[in-house]
């Protein structure tokens, strides 16, 4: 955390070639390191840098800049990275709205962008692009997984999300797979911090479970207030609200909540064990799902760099598309629209000693694809 | 006094030349990014000049000018999206990718909204005015976030920068020149208006509304006209900003944006013709260089702003050209 | 839709309103006495919440945290009053807006520097953990009920302080005539520092009380700051009574709007659409209300000096 990377300063030329087998690759990382939601960006940056460091590939230069979660600033940084730093690849953006601001124009300028988090539907379907690789998920995926899981035990679910595009995509994704009846569908104000009114509605609705998508501080507020309200219907949601970065702030209020993700720190494979251990050793905290995705993104780049030169875009894209790397998620491959085909899991918030974390309950989707791939003509 | 004015003219000319020369040199040196940075300065300066109409001349602290900035941006974004997807609007109107038409639409749209907001807000004064303009901007901000048709909080992408007759707008320097020329035209307009009877009446409305009313001029109407002009110019800047970023989002409407516009004016020097220009240059340089050095740049930005308010009240131009009587 | 639900939602609105009052009271007091518009009031709210979370984590007691939040916010308030704010009283509103805007940046990034980017944990005290059954069989969280009571107690306390005590007399004198209290031999600088620290402590109390309900994180003060401004503008800037009535109105209108508008729209639209459009309208509702109030009463419901 204290490691401040004064990247972007001129003069840090990577002049020493040495016994370079791989050629230099310049990666521009735009992520959120200040302002609201900075915790997610910090995890992405830390995991990405750690992966590059562990690989021993000293020819990779990562230029990291803070977007402060402002789309205009992200665009400005992207322009600088493309026009002035002449980066080969870009990555790092956390939020869909920032991705929508940066990705279309970056890919149009023939820069390859790899998403370590956001996956807006607008970029997965008809507007897909050969230069855009999503290493995380399509935005609907986690919600779809929860909808599928809910079919098992529940018949009348109350659903809740903020009133903005990702919120609507969330409930749409849930409903795409959930077959039961809805006890209610509520959209809250983005950034809302008091959920007493919604909890009262839940209490009165006769629901048998609650699905909610409230990222960041909103989810913390909702979960705490729900636990205090005396309403004891089971809660479920996508992993964003129960990721390692927010769990400590929720405390025991989060215990037992089911949440869906493509990854969990107890996922049983070699790559994941190595990742969790390395991350804990380096930063003294458990990694979040964002960190896992960033780690995979870095390893995907490293694997592709073994096979092709980044200067030969055609070949490098082909190498990326093979996704020939050891993912911490176990299986990982790209669909026709360069979005992941991956397994999705349902996890439960548990306490390991004093630390709140997630434990896998079951796999709810195997080789899940997103709903937009068919619209992509690529 | 006269000497100060001359010095200020020199400083203004210097700023105008600097803002033109720096990107030209950067373009020749093959550093297009610095052209983009200068374009950003010109556009933010333009937006702040708009605010300066009410703030500098009329003494009305509008804390909601982001509303007009965002509306101008959305005018550009919406028209361009309809043109790109070839979806006509109701009543047979079609989208367009012509900047001139887009500017007109941005001017009209932000003008109408400014008229409506002004009609209510200008009945109040002082702190009430600050707060009510802030609240109206917040209202529009929340509307933009939750209204699904044009992207909500995800915003709208403009896939190809809009066109201007005879100019290749995709070339950074050409687009910069468009913005620069507009900025200069608006500054000339500002200077003319300031010295006109209207400008005198607006400044009189700030200093002595009672006397103004006694000679048969109603301060409310003078202020309303100034507020509408102000909103329109900021709206025009918003349209350019959308084209610069090839993207519009509700963050253009957020209260931080309103705050930034005020910051630009004060950094440069309140009540000065070129104050917004100097402020925009400084602000962007701070943001860019501090942001490159540390991720805590907002902390240092805050300290710098504090220092300016407490110790350098005239802003940059005050520092360079000496004080003027606060009239 | 049952009566019980309506009553519960009204209570929720009341609780929200009372919380807004704690914020608005400080703002309006500072404006009334010193003529200062303080955007950094939200930062003091954040300071209170952070102090409470840190002290509660260290000692295991929410109550010590609560005391710490009052102390920390009052101290932070006094500190910025002496170093920065004091120089702004004679300035125009423009300088005040800018300087306090700068203070927000300093507070936010400074807090992030010290505490990191991740939200802190703060839970409600065990004593208030459960649910209270109200007359009529309505279950309601004890903690929220406690907030309502604390808010009402603060309102009464402020009323007594201002109308019955020596300090209150000076505050009232300061509101009506600034020169006069100087002539009365009151040390005006100390008075201003005390008033500012009092306002800051109220904001810190609000932050600490809300901390267990929400997430304690950087930037938490900004949304509530803007709402507090709406409240004091509706109530009349400088009026404690106005702040109280404005806060309750805003709290109830906002809460009931969020609940009733989607239901009302559900009569014409399909549920999913009604939910979306209703939420969009509800988020604008209090601003519309404010515009309506100001259109008829440009200085708010209870302008100072009324």
Q: Compute the CA-based radius of gyration of chain B.
A: 19 Å
Overall mean pLDDT of chain A stands at 88
Any idea what the radius of gyration of chain A is? 20 Å
- Number of helical segments with 4 or more residues of chain B: 13
Number of domains of chain B: 1
Summed up, the domain count of chain A is 2
- DSSP strand tally of chain A: 13
- Please list the strands of the largest sheet of chain B in the order they lie side by side: 1-2
How would the global form of chain A be characterised?
Answer: globular
For the secondary structure, the number of strands of chain B is 2
Question: Could you describe the 3D structure shown?
Answer:
The complex is a heterotrimer of chains A (378), B (327) and C (306). By secondary structure, chain A is α/β, with parallel strands linked by helices. Chain A has two domains: 25-137 and 267-334, 3-Layer(aba) Sandwich (Rossmann fold); 141-261 and 344-372, 3-Layer(aba) Sandwich (Rossmann fold), CATH 3.40.50. Helix content of chain A is 38%, strand content 21%. Chain A is built from eleven helices and 13 strands. With 327 residues, chain B is mainly alpha-helical. Chain B has one domain (37-268). Chain B is built from 13 helices and two strands. Chain B has a two-stranded antiparallel sheet. In chain B, helix 2 packs antiparallel against helix 9 (219-245), helix 7 packs across helix 9 (219-245) and helix 10 (255-268) crosses helix 11 (275-293). Chain B is globular and about 55 Å long. With 306 residues, chain C is mainly alpha-helical. Chain C has one domain (3-219).
């Amino acid at each position: 955390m204290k490691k401040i990377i004064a990247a972007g300063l001129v003069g840090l030329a990577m002049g020493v070639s040495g016994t370079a087998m791989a050629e230099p690759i310049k990666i521009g990382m735009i992520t959120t390191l200040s302002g609201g939601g900075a915790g997610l960006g910090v995890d992405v940056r830390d995991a990405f840098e750690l992966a590059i460091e562990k690989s021993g590939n000293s020819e990779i230069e990562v230029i990291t800049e803070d977007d402060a979660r402002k789309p205009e600033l992200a665009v400005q940084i992207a322009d600088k990275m493309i026009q002035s730093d002449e980066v080969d690849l870009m990555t790092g953006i956390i939020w869909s709205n920032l991705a929508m601001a940066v990705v279309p124009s970056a890919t149009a300028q023939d820069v390859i962008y790899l998403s370590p988090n956001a996956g807006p539907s607008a970029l997965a379907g008809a507007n897909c692009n050969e230069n855009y690789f999503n290493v995380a998920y399509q935005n609907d995926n986690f919600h779809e997984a929860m909808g599928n899981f809910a079919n098992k035990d529940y018949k009348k679910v109350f659903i809740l999300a903020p009133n903005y595009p990702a919120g609507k995509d969330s409930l749409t994704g849930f409903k795409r797979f959930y077959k039961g009846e809805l006890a209610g569908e509520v959209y809250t104000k983005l950034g809302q911090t008091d959920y007493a009114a919604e909890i009262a509605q839940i209490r009165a609705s006769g629901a048998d479970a609650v699905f909610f998508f409230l990222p960041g501080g909103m989810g913390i507020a909702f979960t705490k207030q729900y636990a205090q309200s005396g309403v004891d219907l089971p809660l479920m949601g996508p992993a964003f609200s129960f990721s390692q970065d927010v769990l400590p702030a929720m405390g025991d209020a989060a215990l037992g909540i089911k949440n869906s993700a493509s990854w969990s720190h107890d996922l049983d494979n070699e790559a994941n064990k190595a990742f969790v251990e390395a991350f804990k050793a380096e930063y003294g905290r458990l990694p979040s799902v964002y960190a896992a995705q960033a780690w995979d993104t870095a390893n995907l780049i490293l694997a592709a760099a073994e096979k092709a030169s980044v200067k030969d875009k055609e070949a490098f894209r082909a190498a990326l598309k093979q996704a020939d790397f050891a993912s911490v998620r176990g299986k990982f491959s790209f669909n026709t629209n360069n979005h992941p085909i991956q397994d999705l899991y349902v996890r439960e918030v548990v306490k390991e000693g004093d630390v709140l974390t997630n434990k896998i309950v079951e796999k709810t989707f195997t080789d899940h694809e997103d709903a937009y791939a068919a619209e992509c003509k690529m | 006094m006269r000497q100060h004015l001359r010095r200020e003219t020199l400083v203004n000319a210097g700023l105008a030349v600097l803002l033109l020369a720096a990107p030209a040199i950067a373009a020749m040196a093959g550093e297009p990014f610095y052209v983009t940075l200068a374009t950003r300065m010109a556009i933010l300066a333009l937006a702040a000049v708009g605010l300066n109409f009410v703030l500098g001349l009329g003494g009305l602290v509008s804390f909601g000018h982001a509303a007009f900035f965002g509306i101008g941006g959305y005018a550009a974004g919406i028209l361009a999206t309809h043109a790109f997807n070839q979806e006509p609007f109701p009543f047979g109107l079609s989208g367009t990718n012509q900047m001139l038409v887009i500017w007109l639409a941005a001017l009209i749209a932000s003008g109408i909204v400014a008229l409506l907001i002004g009609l209510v807000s200008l009945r109040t004064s002082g702190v009430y005015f600050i707060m009510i303009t802030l609240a109206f901007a917040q209202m529009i901000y929340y509307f933009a976030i939750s209204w699904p048709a044009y992207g909500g909080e995800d915003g709208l992408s403009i896939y190809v920068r809009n066109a201007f007759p005879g100019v290749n707008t995709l070339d950074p320097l050409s687009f910069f020149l468009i913005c620069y020329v507009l900025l200069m035209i608006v500054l000339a307009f500002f200077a003319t208006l300031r010295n006109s009877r209207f400008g005198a009446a607006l400044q009189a409305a700030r200093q002595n509304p009672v006397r103004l009313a006694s000679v048969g001029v109603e301060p409310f109407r003078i202020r309303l006209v100034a507020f509408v002009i102000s909103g329109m110019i900021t709206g025009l800047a918003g349209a350019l900003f959308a084209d610069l970023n090839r993207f519009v989002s509700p963050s253009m409407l957020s209260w931080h944006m309103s705050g930034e516009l005020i910051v630009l004016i004060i950094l440069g020097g309140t009540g000065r013709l070129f104050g917004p220009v100097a402020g925009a240059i400084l602000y962007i340089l701070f943001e860019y260089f501090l942001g490159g050095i540390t991720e805590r740049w907002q902390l240092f930005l805050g300290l710098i702003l504090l220092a300016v308010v407490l110790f350098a009240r005239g802003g940059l131009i005050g520092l360079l050209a000496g004080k003027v009587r606060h009239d | 839709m049952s009566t019980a639900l309506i009553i519960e939602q009204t209570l929720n609105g009341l609780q929200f309103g009372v919380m807004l009052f704690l914020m608005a009271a400080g703002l309006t007091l500072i404006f009334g006495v010193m003529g200062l518009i303080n955007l950094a009031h939200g930062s003091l709210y954040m300071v209170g919440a952070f102090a409470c979370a840190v002290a509660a984590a260290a000692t295991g007691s929410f109550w010590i945290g609560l005391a710490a939040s009052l102390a920390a916010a009052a101290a932070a308030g006094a500190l910025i009053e002496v170093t920065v704010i004091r120089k702004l009283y004679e300035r125009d509103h423009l300088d005040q807006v800018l300087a306090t805007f700068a203070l927000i940046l300093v507070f936010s990034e400074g807090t992030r520097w010290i505490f990191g980017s991740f939200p802190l944990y703060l839970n409600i005290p065990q004593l208030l953990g459960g649910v209270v059954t109200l007359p009529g069989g309505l279950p309601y969280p004890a903690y929220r009920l406690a907030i309502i009571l604390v808010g009402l107690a603060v309102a009464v306390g402020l009323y007594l302080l201002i109308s019955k005590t020596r300090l209150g007399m000076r505050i009232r004198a300061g509101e009506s005539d600034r020169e006069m209290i100087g002539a009365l031999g009151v040390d005006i600088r100390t008075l201003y520092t005390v008033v500012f620290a009092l306002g800051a402590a109220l904001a810190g109390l609000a932050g600490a009380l809300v901390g267990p309900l929400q997430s304690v994180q950087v930037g938490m003060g900004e949304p509530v700051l803007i709402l507090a401004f709406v409240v004091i503008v509706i109530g009349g800037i400088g009026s404690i009574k106005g702040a109280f009535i404005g806060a309750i109105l805003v709290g109830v209108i906002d809460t009931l709007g969020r609940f009733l508008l989607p239901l009302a729209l559900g009569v014409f639209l399909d549920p999913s659409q009604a939910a979306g459009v209703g939420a969009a309208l509800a988020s604008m509702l209090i601003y519309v209300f404010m515009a309506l109030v100001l259109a008829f009463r440009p200085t708010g419901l209870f302008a100072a000096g009324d």
